[in-house]
Write a structure and sequence with these properties.
Strand order of the largest sheet: 2-1-5-4-3
Helix content: 55-70%
Largest sheet: 5 strands, antiparallel
Structural class: alpha+beta
Order of helices and strands: HEEHHHEEEH
Distance between the termini: 129 Å
Length: 179
């Protein structure tokens, strides 16, 4: 019986060590993730955020409780769509939006998320925020380029129409002068 108790105690200690190692690995992954990670409670209030998310939100860790739902999801229509997706599928996104920082700066991001439960069964939502600044800037440049091409095409069409009209007028003039 003593050997069995000793074996159980050893197994318990090993399980604790494995749990501590797994927790440490998760914490390191969480803190060093290249995407913003935010854990929201059932009322969509932030409970936990990694350093990347804090930078994207423009707040310090001690300011996290003051971050509003509107700062995390400024578009109420998009927020409602995400909420419904969470209810139906357990996930939402990805979708593009712009975060407004307290400093007044804005940041283009891609949001996605998934429903989760805490250890005691409380509903939570993990939100993943990816900086979309480069892609948003590229898309804006592309839109400006396409608008410029459309403008040049319209000007070229107008110049062609003027040239066709001038050629027709010249032909009419020469025909009238030859008679």
């Amino acid at each position: 019986a003593n050997a069995a108790l000793q074996r159980l105690l050893t197994e318990r200690d090993q399980a604790r060590e494995q749990e501590l190692a797994a927790t440490s690995r998760f914490r390191e992954l969480f803190e060093n993730a290249p995407v913003g990670l935010v854990l929201l409670d059932a009322r969509f209030r932030p409970v936990l955020a990694n350093q990347t998310a804090l930078l994207m939100l423009g707040v310090d860790a001690d300011q996290l409780p003051s971050v509003t739902r509107e700062q995390l999801a400024p578009d109420p229509t998009l927020f409602e769509a995400h909420r419904l997706e969470l209810q139906v599928r357990g996930t939402f996104g990805p979708s593009s939006t712009t975060l407004q920082m307290p400093s007044g700066e804005s940041l283009s991001v891609i949001l996605s998320g998934l429903a989760a439960r805490s250890a005691n069964g409380d509903p939570h939502v993990w939100v993943f925020m990816q900086d979309n600044t480069v892609q948003a800037a590229s898309e804006q440049t592309l839109r400006a380029y396409l608008a410029e091409i459309e403008l040049q095409a319209a000007e070229l069409a107008e110049a062609r129409d003027v040239a066709v009209a001038a050629t027709a007028a010249k032909g009419s003039f020469l025909a009238m002068m030859s008679h």
